[in-house]
Amino acid sequence: MASKLGVIAVLLLILGLWECEGQMACGRRVISSRIMGGADSKVGAWPWQVDLQDNGEHVCGGSLLNENWVLSAAHCFPTPSAVSTYRIYIGRYALNGFNLYEQSRKISQVLVHPSYQDPHTGFDIALVQLSSAVAFTDYIQPVCLPTSAVLFPEGMECWVTGWGNVGSSVSLPSPGNLQELQLPIISQSSCYQMYQVPTNLHPTPSNILSDMICAGFQQGQKDACQGDSGGPLVCTMINGTWVQAGIVSWGDGCGDPNRPGVYVYLPAYSDWIKQTVPTLELYGGAQNSLACSLSVCLNAVLSLLLVALLR
Q1: What are the E-state strand segments in the chain?
Q2: Does 200 or 111 have the greater pLDDT score?
Q3: Which residues are catalytic?
Q4: DSSP annotation of 94
Q5: For 52-81, what is each residue's pLDDT tens digit?
């Protein structure tokens, strides 16, 4: 009898750990990649990256949230109600070549934030429902989205990925392998100050609003560019989970001094995302860890009570 009770206790503990793991199935990548700013990534290194095409041409990037939903920028959909010519590719690596691990889907609907008008005025966010569910593989995995409580402090090293231009008016050369670039977060206040500095190419200052976040370098040179719009800016948290901090939105030029890339700040949209896709679980950092710990502890207590009652 004692051995059977021990087995039951172990099973309850395993159940607690399994439930804890199941709470956060996003933000994990099976295939790792060494980061070399502005270089080809490794096949499968960014399994949530998607390629958004219109009439067979790459127009934007995006990120996979679960089997049915993709996140992108609102300005990638000038007419959200007319998307029959769009197609989304998941698990893609090369724009111009054979992709062994990719899946493609049509778009069922595009939900643009109701307040969106222009990237410079904010709300540049869109949720895209796929025509049918994708199958997760080592090369296709969802990214985590943050709750409003998750912080991305200045100096935090994050990564932007995409198939955009490699310079102003310089297209990504064939075969068009997915690019990765490591960038530090720039605070909203610091970014605002940079965008007030007039330059020869950009004499007019721009506002950095509260729903925006910047990443890059004051001296420029490394940046997202045209064609990267809608793609993810992701950061790895202390527990190894990859969480998307921003969406590539806008910028003055590509890699110009005092003009870092501007991204949609996703913690500002956690409520809207959750209201739009209620089944989507958001990453809450310490909150998720606390929930997991309580789950494990509860199962441990239950196993001990079961042993005591059946003696």
Answers
A1: 39-40, 49-54, 57-64, 69-72, 86-90, 103-105, 107-112, 126-130, 157-162, 179-186, 212-215, 232-236, 242-250, 261-265
A2: 111
A3: 75, 124, 229
A4: B
A5: 999 999 999 999 999 999 999 999 999 999
